[in-house]
Amino acid sequence: MAHKITDACISCGSCVDACPVSAIAEGADHYEINMDVCIDCGACEDSCPMGALVAE
To answer: Which CATH architecture does the domain made up of 3-55 adopt?
Structure first.
């Protein structure tokens, strides 16, 4: 299941540190997931203090 970073993201970077394949990078407004690299492990979702990562 694909994950998405919502506008609740405060760009704290916790998801970047949690991603085992470096699929998350800083975007224009908040962090973004590169779906070509993402393995849908869910580590980012579990690490976000704002709950900004959701499974679609």
So the answer is: 2-Layer Sandwich (3.30)
